[in-house]
Amino acid sequence: MTADQGKSATEIVGDIVGNVQDIVRAEVRLAGLELRDEALKLKQAAVLGAAAAFVALLGLGWLLYAFIQMLALAISLWAAALIVSVAALAIAGILALTAKRKIGELAAPLPKTRASVREIARWTQTHEH
């Protein structure tokens, strides 16, 4: 005779509800851990990315200035500056559109939690009746 055989239906339902509550709490904890880990990775990447962007911006500024000076040898300075500025803005537009497309391709967050919740829902549906 097992311990469950002496329990009433109310006690069994209570145990099931308690187990489901424990599972939900565990899923919430898992989601929190996943989000914290991803946020830390994102923060580190953002700091490195910001530093790289700052240094690249300085270098790009000097490179564009050099192009303007080079073109100014053949045409007027204002025309050289205009040509280089338009080219730089066109490249920036292409990069911005590419970034927008890449952001749209990002995967949904919390893959482990979502998979676990789906499994719990499947199990609940098969054991309901």
Q: How would you describe the overall organization of this protein?
A:
The chain contains three helices and no strands. It is rod-shaped and about 100 Å long. It is 83% helix and 0% strand. The protein has helices at residues 9-71, 77-104, 111-126. The chain has one domain. Helix 1 runs antiparallel to helix 3 (111-126).
End-to-end distance, in Å? 24 Å
Residue share in helix: over 70%
Give Rg in angstroms. Answer: 30 Å
Q: Count of DSSP E strands?
A: 0
Sum up the overall morphology in one term. rod-shaped
β-strand amount = under 5%
Low-confidence segments: none
Largest sheet: none
Number of domains: 1
Please give a handful of descriptors for the protein shown.
129 residues, mainly alpha
In short:
The protein is 83% helix and 0% strand. The chain is mainly α and 129 residues long. It starts with 8 loop residues before the first helix and ends with a helix.
SSE arrangement:
Blueprint: H1 9-71, H2 77-104, H3 111-126
Helix pairs in contact: 1-2, 1-3
